[in-house]
Write a structure and sequence with these properties.
7 helices, alpha/beta, globular, Response regulator transcription factor, six-stranded parallel β-sheet, 6 strands, phosphoprotein, transcription regulation, Rossmann fold, 168 residues, single chain
């Protein structure tokens, strides 16, 4: 079985090294590069051709959302999971609208993170129930579901409702 090549991008050295150590213990994951900002993540993607990028949102030089947009534009097959401490719906929507396949909080258990990487690599989308719930509330409080500001289709809103209810 081929290993999933992962690039890690975070401006906090402790987080970057901790992720590297923890994810390196997984037999099916291979850490191919480390980046301290979005610009380094973009260069790392061009150099190492990872399958997956774990990307922080708030980084110097270029933030994770801007880097995600550029990576997806240049290397659309590369999958991106935003891994951040930000719980604000705006960040989630910005990341997902620029092509990220997942949005997780750094408080996640390492085993769940590794499992999430596998889910996204297999073609899934990953977002926590808490985040889906916040997105639904935000959509319901701002505009009618058929004409929402996030450009979501009726089916996408239906899926968000299901996620918010705890379904898979």
């Amino acid at each position: 079985m081929a290993k999933i090549k992962v690039l890690l991008a975070d401006d906090q050295e402790l987080i970057l090294e901790s992720l590297h150590i923890v994810l390196s213990m997984e037999e099916d994951l291979e850490i191919v590069g480390l980046a301290k900002n979005g610009e380094e993540a973009l260069k790392g993607c061009e150099q190492f051709k990872p399958d997956m990028v774990l990307m922080d949102v708030n980084m110097p030089v270029m933030d994770g959302v801007a880097a995600t947009a550029l990576i997806k534009e240049r290397m659309p097959a590369t999958k991106i999971i935003m891994l951040t401490s930000y719980k604000e719906v705006e960040y989630v929507l910005a990341a997902l609208s620029h092509g990220a396949e997942g949005y997780l909080l750094k408080a996640i258990h390492p085993r769940d993170l590794a499992a999430g990487i596998r889910v996204v690599q297999a073609g899934g989308t990953l977002i926590t129930q808490e985040m889906a719930s916040k997105m639904i509330k935000n959509i319901n409080n701002t505009t009618p579901p058929k004409n929402n500001e996030f450009g979501l289709s009726g089916r996408e809103i239906e899926v968000l409702h299901k996620l918010a209810a705890g379904l898979r």
